[in-house]
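Hi support team,

I've been running sequence recovery on a batch of backbones for a student project. Most finish fine, but this one hangs at about 90% for roughly twenty minutes before it completes. I'm not sure whether the input is malformed or the queue is just slow. I've pasted the structure tokens below so you can try to reproduce it. Let me know if you need the job ID as well.

Thanks,
M.K.
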């Protein structure tokens, strides 16, 4: 059994919540944290237009927060993009890179993810790289090959001494209510950990959190969290209500 020092409970709000809703949610959620184990690390990936609301409420707390996407340059003529330099100045600690919705709807490639990982790390942000196979890829037995390739290609500019994390999110489980079994998730996490071992050596690979994402809910959180290789969750739908996010944070026993 691996000894887990902490368990990350990360909310990915996608394009949900207005500034007022963000404020209401966070003001309600902050006192709920008192009932969670101190080993739970809550993280919020906030829609870009609400980041300043999150900064005002979360800076100075033990919750980490950041953006769902960043550009690979810190500034420049990139209309409509999110600068990682601005994110850092606002007080954020983290950002998502290569979520499957960014990959499929906005054509993000592994190459682009590699550049975003580098720029985030260069500015002192801890990027969370998302990888995951489609249903067709799983059905044709390509899961391990696909996720290993995504991992290696997206980490090719990584500074392994600096903080980063990985989220394994099978595309067929995102927003579908169809969760990977703890066995399926555990196997994929082990493959990712081995690939990380090869890339950056055992001790750094062991220290890198690998989260599971895809239809995590209060009802399946305990079983998934007991899986040896799962160091946290990346949660979409069930993170939109304070009660369900708090319930997930409360059921985990590490
Ligand atoms: P879900 O989303 O929990 O709604 O499946 C997860 C994600 O997209 O990060």
């Amino acid at each position: 059994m691996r000894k887990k020092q902490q368990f990350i409970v990360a909310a990915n709000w996608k394009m949900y919540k207005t500034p007022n809703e963000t404020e209401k949610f966070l003001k309600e959620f902050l006192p709920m944290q008192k009932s969670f184990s101190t080993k739970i690390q809550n993280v919020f990936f906030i829609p870009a237009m609400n980041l300043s609301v999150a900064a005002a409420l979360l800076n100075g707390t033990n919750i980490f927060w950041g953006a769902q996407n960043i550009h690979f340059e810190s500034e420049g003529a990139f209309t409509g993009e999110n600068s990682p330099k601005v994110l850092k100045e606002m007080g954020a600690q983290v950002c998502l890179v290569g979520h499957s919705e960014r990959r499929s709807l906005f054509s993000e490639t592994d190459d682009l993810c590699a550049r975003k990982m580098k720029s985030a790390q260069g500015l002192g942000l801890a990027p969370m790289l998302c990888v995951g196979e489609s249903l067709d890829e799983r059905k044709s037995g390509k899961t391990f090959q696909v996720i290993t390739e995504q991992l290696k290609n997206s980490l090719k500019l990584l500074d392994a001494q600096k903080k980063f994390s990985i989220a394994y999110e099978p595309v067929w489980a995102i927003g579908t209510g169809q969760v990977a079994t703890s066995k399926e998730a555990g196997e994929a996490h082990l493959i990712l950990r081995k690939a990380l071992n090869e890339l950056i050596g055992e001790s750094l690979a062991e220290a890198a959190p690998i989260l599971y994402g895809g239809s995590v809910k209060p009802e399946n959180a305990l079983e998934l969290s007991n899986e040896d290789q799962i160091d946290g969750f990346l949660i979409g739908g069930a993170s939109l209500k304070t009660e369900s996010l708090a319930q997930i944070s409360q059921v985990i026993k590490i």
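--
Follow-up from support: It reproduced on our side and the slowdown came from queue contention, not your input. The longest helix spans residues 182-200. No action needed from you.
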